[in-house]
Design brief:
2 domains; mainly alpha; two-stranded antiparallel sheet; rod-shaped
Amino acid sequence: MTTAKIVFPEKGTVSYYESEEHEDTPYHKRRTDGLNSTAGMSTDELILYSIDYFHRSLEKRGEMGARTALWTNRVIKSGMAGLMLIAASILVLVFVVSKQMSDIALVTTKMDTQMAQMVTDIREMSTYVNSIGDSVSTLPIIVEEISNMERNVSEMGDYVSQVSETMTHTDQVVEQMVVNIDEMESNLSNVTLIVRGMDQSIDRVSRPFRIFNKMIP
């Protein structure tokens, strides 16, 4: 409880009132007995009243500035958070793309290796085919010898000895033919193995493409 004294120079009176407000309460907020408006205030009271309102307006302005700064800070924080999320998304995207490019490069390297192996297998197969061709080239000799044998048989009689010699030579040729046929069978077996290896190589070559197709939607 505080006691205040108000002096009215114009009226030559002094007014005392008691108020429950603290001494630091602004003048325009204090409740006085019968003085609830500026109509009955003196010049000094109006000056004090105006100063109190001015300080109050400054306080409001400071509060508004603080609120504006708070909202500005929140907007800046939100913007920075959004930029950080965008940057993180870009980094993740770059990492994923680099990982996929590394996988593609690895698959391409494996495919090149498989293609080189396939070329080597084709060259080996060509060598075996040429060998088979060389073995088959001896067949005309065999046919010629058989023809000679038939002519010699038709001239049996005086030429029995010659036929015997020709038969011996024919046996040698047949043995050579058997050897050549065995060699041809061996070459065919090798060709079969090469063809099987080629089938496996083609399957290995196609495997990276299947993996590549699975990686790309």
